[in-house]
Amino acid sequence: MSEPKSILVIGGGISGMTAALEAAEAGKSVALIEKSPYIGGRVARINQYFPKFCPPVCGMEINLKRIKSNPNITIYTLAEVDSISGSAGNYDVSVTVNPRYVNSKCTLCGKCSEVCTAEIDDDFNLGMCKTKAAYLPHKMAYPRLYVLDPSIIGTDDAQKCKEACKYDAVDLDMKPEKVTINAAAIIVATGWQPFDASKVDYYNFDKNDNIITNVMMERLNAEDGPTQGKILRPSDGKEPASVAFVQCAGSRDENYQGYCSGVCCAATIKQIHYVREQYPDAEITVFYIDIRTPGRLEDLYLKAQEDEKVTFQKGKAVNIDGTSNGNLLIEAEDTLTGVKSKKEVEMVVLATGMVPNLAETGLPGGGATFDKYGFIVPDGEGIYGAGVAKRPVDVAVCTKDSTGTALKAIQCLVRG
Ligand SMILES: Cc1cc2nc3c(=O)[nH]c(=O)nc-3n(C[C@H](O)[C@H](O)[C@H](O)COP(=O)(O)OP(=O)(O)OC[C@H]3O[C@@H](n4cnc5c(N)ncnc54)[C@H](O)[C@@H]3O)c2cc1C
Ligand code: SF4
Ligand code: SF4
Prior knowledge:
Layout: E1 6-10, H1 14-25, E2 30-33, H2 57-68, E3 73-76, E4 79-87, E5 90-97, H3 111-115, E6 119-121, E7 130-132, E8 134-135, E9 147-148, H4 156-164, E10 177-188, E11 192-194, E12 211-213, H5 214-220, E13 242-249, H6 264-278, E14 283-288, H7 297-305, E15 310-314, E16 316-322, E17 328-333, E18 340-345, E19 347-352, E20 354-356, E21 369-370, E22 376-377, E23 383-385, H8 395-415
Parallel strand pairs: 1-2, 1-10, 2-3, 10-23, 12-19, 13-14, 13-19, 14-15
Antiparallel strand pairs: 4-5, 5-10, 6-7, 8-9, 11-20, 16-17, 17-18, 21-22
Helix pairs in contact: 1-2, 1-8, 6-7
Bound molecules: flavin-adenine dinucleotide (FAD) and iron/sulfur cluster (SF4) (2 copies).
């Protein structure tokens, strides 16, 4: 019987990167599969992260340095698993690696982007702005390579990109490739996507530009975001004088997401800080059912309460509607007393939760067990969940969890 070669990690967010690094630094061979053109996952899109409010660059840079210098890790971006066969100790995983149309000769000179006329929704900025169809996904993107969007292949734009590239890095003949990876253990670190707020009719999220979500707020406050870091009201670019945060937007509600995402209260408190830094006089209201800031995150909550212009209003938002003057009216109801309240504000941020990415699709080829919300349930040997694929948690918990998961995968590999 041939020796199993590696540990396969699916998903290149902070959890997948951590699991891959821990296994690789213990001397094991690791294949990391990421479906987007870069690794880093959702954390790369966060502007600052609690508890310290540092930019994600800090943690990411260290991890990227470790990954770059570790020959045991092979990264496949733009890659997705087609099927998994075999069992613990000996899986064969079939993967499709989609073309980037740019090879490793890319120097990041940006000429292809300059000549490209086609624009696409900027996925990194959640479609809040456009980017050229020849692009670097974001300033820290790794691998450090441009990408050509498949929509321009076969058009004049693609040809212009090729001609503009002095380094012969644009390769329009690239085709999807099939790779088979033999793995002793599989770590599923596929993470999350934001809850789709338009599912809750009474928020009117898709009908009013001034109602945004917390993930959009992260990008609004980011220097490389759609407004170069200025928090502005989307409909008219006004500096908001009042902002309301609506907690549990779709969460803890059996009609939508029955669970607590655990991070969105702390994320709101962080975003209060974003607003306050830019607008010292802005009035901020937080509509909440309970504020959940476990452990030391409570310190952040206590600090936010000291701000005289921040009101924590107990109440579940039951309706959000535009007013004739372009503002928004929030109606809320205290879930314990039934007391109703109303508040007019200039901008609303919905604190949406995290939906596991595999909730609808499961794992191609099966082999993993999921709970009713789509989180992986620890179950048996060989395939292990890590990070938010397993439960909604913050970065600190993800990294600890992924380290433990790497150990489980190593044990499985050693047992053979
Ligand atoms: C508004 C908001 C603010 C937050 N702020 C903070 C904060 O300040 N501090 C903090 O500690 N936490 C914060 N969090 C939580 C933090 O974002 C998560 O803990 C973290 O993203 C989890 O990392 P992950 O690697 O498990 O998942 P992800 O970041 O989602 O990474 C998963 C990766 O897997 C890839 N992938 C998905 N499916 C597949 C597939 N089928 N094949 C291959 N690849 C796949 C994805 O493209 C992605 O790169 C916040 C969350 C929200 C909602
Ligand atoms: S693909 Fe070529 S033109 Fe585009 S950034 Fe890379 S080196 Fe420059
Ligand atoms: S963390 Fe806060 S906002 Fe998020 S679901 Fe839990 S209680 Fe609601």
